[in-house]
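re: the backbone from monday

yeah here it is again, tokenized this time
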């Protein structure tokens, strides 16, 4: 997935409502405030807390 800057401006962490950082190598959107990484599958961000990976693990 190529990061669409306009789309990234609209997406926020569902837990903290803070902006996300796109990690192209891992294909994840990172919420440093919540300590979560949301996966991007087939070009679609999965913004479910249950699907997120804890950062640092």
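seq for it, each position gets an aa:
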């Amino acid at each position: 997935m190529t990061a669409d800057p306009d789309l990234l401006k609209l997406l926020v962490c569902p837990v903290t409502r803070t902006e996300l950082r796109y990690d192209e190598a891992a294909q994840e959107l990172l919420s440093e405030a919540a300590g979560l990484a949301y996966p991007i599958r087939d070009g679609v961000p999965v913004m479910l807390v249950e699907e997120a990976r804890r950062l640092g693990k």
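The chain has a mean pLDDT of 90. The longest helix spans residues 5-10.
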